[in-house]
Amino acid sequence: MTEEKFVKKLLKNEIIELIEKKDWYNLKEALIEWPSPDIAELIEEIDDESKIIVFRVLPKKLSAEVFDELTPIVKENLISKLTDEHIKNILSELPPDERTDLFEELPGKVTQRLLNLLPPTDRKEALQLLGYPENSVGRLMTPDYVAIKKDWTIERALQHIREFGKSAETINMVYVIDENWRLLDDISLSKLILSDPSETVEKIMDFNYISIEVNKDQEEAANIMRKYDLIVLPVVDEDGILLGIVTVDDVLNVLEQEHTEDMTKLFAITPETAGVDMITDLLKTPIKNLYKSRVTWLIFLLFMDLFTGGIIKRFEDTIAKYIVLVTFLPVLVDTAGNAGSQSATLIIRSMALGKIKMKDWLKMLGREILVALLLGLTMGLGISFMGIVRGGFNICKVVVISMIVNVIAGCLMGMALPFIFTKFKKDPATASAPLITTLADIIGSGIYLTFAMLMLK
pTM (2 decimals)? Predict the structure, then answer.
């Protein structure tokens, strides 16, 4: 056990002892010294009754920070046991974007209860945020920003920032708007501070800014912020009206979630069944959810694999005559599957980063054919020595040609599937490695045994 884990265990035991003694004062004094992620970790580990006790003694602001760190299951459990007043205090401390995340991950009935606890202004704001499409920038943005007018003096703008900046998500960038709240420019706080206080804001504007439309996908916001090295991105409607901002910490959460989702789909796991957050926390994910997230693809791939057996049976006379052919079958189809998985992974990642678009499919096809041919020739040369040793020259010819064709077929299949899924408005990550491997088994077995039957006839 590391020193850090040992200390945490001692502190946890101390907290449990304070709970048992009902020493609420010292319990509160001990907990307020802990970082919120550590308190959340403690709450996840202790029993349900102790969870409520620990949560009740936390100060208002700290309890909101800790609540935001908890898993959806624990959040729902706490909400069912806390009083309306306590929940109201937590919701009031949560930023609007984090509050929206909470509403999205809870059952509809629970969300409705929480919405009814909000003040009218906050409820209207929450409903507005929830009204945007799922995974859109509108669900991610926060309306807590600082806006100024172009005809203000720098001095007045700075005074406005001092007055309203405390409640803003960030004041690194402030936004210039017109009378209708149409976005005109963004200006860094440092630029404002270093400007002449008597000058107008318009004098230091360059009318050059990057923004994103509210209904765009969250991943697009992440790509824009990465491309232009932004820490905050303004969100506008179709008329250019400033609605909110997206900050870099929100985008990092999106990127982590998208990466997890893509990784699970690449290996034929359905993250929607258990939830992306729960998939990454296997110890706390119910067994039935893990089962459901994995079984669908496995059943589908099982029935696909039956085709491979049918193909082998179709060529049983050739196999019976040249039994040595069977010894090369696994390496041929596995190599084709591996090559296809490599191609798919590269294409999917490039698509996720916005480096490849649907219009690039023909260009990628030409490049992949060349790469696949080189890989096929290399693999064919690699297996030729074993082909001669095991089966002689005639068998070697079949194996080498089959290897070259199989690798080319696998690469092209791996390259094409992400484009096909994207064309039909499906996540390209659905072109998973197990799917490509299974298709390579079916197609590769057919190619290999067909060449064997024709060339050894």
Answer: 0.55
Terminal Cα-to-Cα distance of the chain (whole angstroms): 66
Angstrom distance (rounded) from CA 297 to CA 165: 50
Which of 246, 252, 5 has the alpha carbon at shortest distance from 140? 246
Burial (0-12, 13-18, 19+ Cβ within 10 Å), 336: buried
Q: Kindly report the CA angle at 160 between 156 and 165, in degrees rounded to 5?
A: 150
Q: Return d(Cα 319, Cα 327) in angstroms, integer.
A: 10
For residue 233, what are its two tokens?
A: 């991105």
Confidence (pLDDT) at 36: 83
Can you give the pLDDT at residue 424? 83
Q: Pick from 94, 4, 82, 6: which is nearest to 43 by CA?
A: 82
Pairing of strands 242-247, 232-236: antiparallel
pLDDT, averaged in runs of 10, over the chain (457 residues): 50 76 79 82 80 79 82 80 80 78 72 74 72 81 88 94 86 91 93 93 92 89 88 90 87 72 63 53 68 76 79 83 87 90 86 83 91 94 88 88 93 90 78 77 89 85
Cα–Cα dist 122/129, whole Å: 11
The pair phi, psi for residue 106, each rounded to 5°, is: -95, 155
- Smallest CA-to-CA distance from 164 within 154, 177, 174 is with 174
Mode of pairing for the β-strands spanning 242-247 and 173-177: unpaired
Q: In this structure, which long-range contacts are made by residues 260-265, counting pairs with CB atoms below 8 Å and at least 24 apart in sequence?
A: 261/427, 261/429, 262/348, 262/352, 262/427, 262/429, 264/293, 265/427, 265/429, 265/430, 265/432
Indicate the angle between helix axes 108-117 and 96-105, nearest 10 degrees.
150
Q: Map out the domains of the chain with their CATH numbers.
A: 3-131 (1.25.60.10), 147-252 (3.10.580.10), 279-455 (1.10.357.20)
Quote the tokens at residue 246: 């997206």
What six digits make up the tokens of 344? 């798919």
pLDDT tens per residue, range 397-440 = 999 999 999 999 999 998 998 898 888 877 776 666 778 888 88
Buried b (16+ CB within 10 A) or exposed e, 45-76: ebeeebbbbbbebbeeebbbbbbbbbbbbbbe
Going edge to edge, which strands form the sheet with 232-236? Answer: 212-213, 232-236, 242-247
Q: 135: closest CA among 11, 251, 298? A: 251
pLDDT of residue 6: 43
